[in-house]
Write a structure and sequence with these properties.
By secondary structure, this protein is an all-alpha fold. It has one domain. It contains 3 helices and no strands. 21% of the residues are buried.
Amino acid sequence: MNGLNWVWIGVMAIVPFALGLAVAYPIWHTKETVLGNLAGAAVIFGGALVLILRESVEVERTTRACLEAGFTCWPDPSAFTRYAIYATVGLVQVCSLFMLSLRVEQQIRNRDRSPEWR
């Protein structure tokens, strides 16, 4: 098992953030920014965890097949590196979600004020 599975890394880069944003955005507009951030972060970290577990099963399956064939093989890059990629992408997405929530919160606050007081 050599190389990274770029399709699944691409899925991680797009799908959890979109789902987290879809969950958080309506909650933000009820003026519950922290609750929206928590819900969105839970979706993103949950997606990262699911993809890390999928990668773990794939590494385990490949390693077991090598052992049953009578030789030893190790994944390249290592399993830790594979998991760290998904975790890092998830963390960057959560940070992006939090920064986006600041803009949404500011827009909501400014919407309730007259233009000359902004």
